[in-house]
Amino acid sequence: MFTVRLSSMFVLLCFLYTCVLVDGSDKKETDVLNTCLSSKHHKTQPGPEDNLFKCSAWLNNSCCTNYTAQYVHGDGQPLYNLNFSHCAPMSDKCRNHFTNNNCFYECSPYLGPWITPQKLSYRHERMYKVPLCASQCNAWWQDCKDESTCVENWSTGFKWDKSGNHCPRNTVCRPFTSVYHNASHFCETVWGPDDFVVTPDHNYCMKLSFTGPNPNVEVAYHYALKKHLIKGTAVPPYSEPPKIPPLQVQGTIFSVVIGSIIIIVVIALLIFVGLKRYRGTLFHHQGVPMRFRNLLRSSRQSAMVTRSDPGAEMSFMQYEEEEEEDNPEMNGSLRLDL
Ligand SMILES: *[C@@H]1O[C@H](CO)[C@@H](O)[C@H](O)[C@H]1NC(C)=O
Ligand SMILES: *[C@@H]1O[C@H](CO)[C@@H](O)[C@H](O)[C@H]1NC(C)=O
Ligand SMILES: *[C@@H]1O[C@H](CO)[C@@H](O)[C@H](O)[C@H]1NC(C)=O
Ligand SMILES: *[C@@H]1O[C@H](CO)[C@@H](O)[C@H](O)[C@H]1NC(C)=O
Ligand SMILES: *[C@@H]1O[C@H](CO)[C@@H](O)[C@H](O)[C@H]1NC(C)=O
């Protein structure tokens, strides 16, 4: 009877353990935090690269190939044939910001929480309302506001032919300051509308340029939680971009802990049951009534230390009475014996 109950409990525990394991390595969740846009130049899977030229911040984990990275900063061919200098040659200080933005767009594997479908000839997905740090947007705007353009949004505003992008009829080249109202309007519109939402720096926000570990990993994790795209409780402190996606690591640790607890509980149960059975059979065979068990035990101990004592031959009840007297002489003889 008890064996049946125990084994069914074991099956139940194993089932729970399996659920934890499956939950911890949910593929969809890790995809959100480490994925590439479906687009003309993006890799299908993120991964490390040997050389990314001006996009080297993304070397450790990147959606762009070295080929794409080689051309992100240039006008015209070969990537999209987009001419940044369509009104006037773009200054280097401004171009650096567009280059950083292009690296971010082409290389970042951490845009998962903001990817939405979009049917264009050159992509099936776009990023939508990515929270861009206000400080990054302001720097971009400060270095570019004196450039000029003829369209507000550069992904849909131009007229295109084989030689690239051109200003549509009835448009004129104007300084950015006359096309855009302010920094936020510029950052949110130039590649948009709504690629970015400019976000105060004290909130979780994405950086287009950085040195060292990629700060956007943590930001993506935060928003994935907030949008219920993944399960979890808190944003962990930042660590190196993981080889194993962070959720899987967490899941594994969780599973190991739960697994260990289950195994310990099962072993404890088995030992408990085993002991109970062993004792049961022992006393059954010797035919000693339960209430004499303590007496038997104490008499054994006493018999061991007072081997030469003739009292060892006394009955249980008599011997116990003598012990209660706490005889100092007897203690002395004990020491000598030892
Ligand atoms: C890109 O890397 C591959 C090897 O991974 C190499 O063969 C190729 O020449 C590189 N291309 C550029 C533009 O660096
Ligand atoms: C970009 O456009 C300007 C103005 O039309 C033109 O002078 C320049 O040659 C173009 N650059 C490229 C690489 O197409
Ligand atoms: C893009 O900008 C052009 C003019 O600059 C405007 O006519 C068009 O409606 C804009 N498109 C979107 C989707 O906002
Ligand atoms: C920037 O301009 C937009 C209008 O395009 C406006 O809605 C927004 O409030 C302005 N932001 C700031 C900070 O002035
Ligand atoms: C890439 O990772 C290595 C160690 O894993 C680290 O030393 C290096 O600084 C990282 N590079 C970047 C650009 O984060």
TrEMBL record:
**Ranges for domain Folate receptor-like:** 35-206
Q: Which residues form the signal peptide?
A: 1-24
Keyword Transmembrane helix belongs to the record:
yes
Q: Where is the composition biased (Acidic residues)?
A: 319-328
Q: Which InterPro entries match?
A: Folate_rcpt, Folate_rcpt-like
Task: Return the annotated region ranges for Disordered.
Answer: 319-338
**Entry annotated with the keyword Transferase:** no
- Span-the-membrane segments of this chain are 253-275
Keywords from UniProt, A to Z, are: Disulfide bond, Membrane, Signal, Transmembrane, Transmembrane helix
Family per similarity comment = Belongs to the folate receptor family.
Name of the protein in question? Folate receptor gamma
Gene symbol? LOC100178291
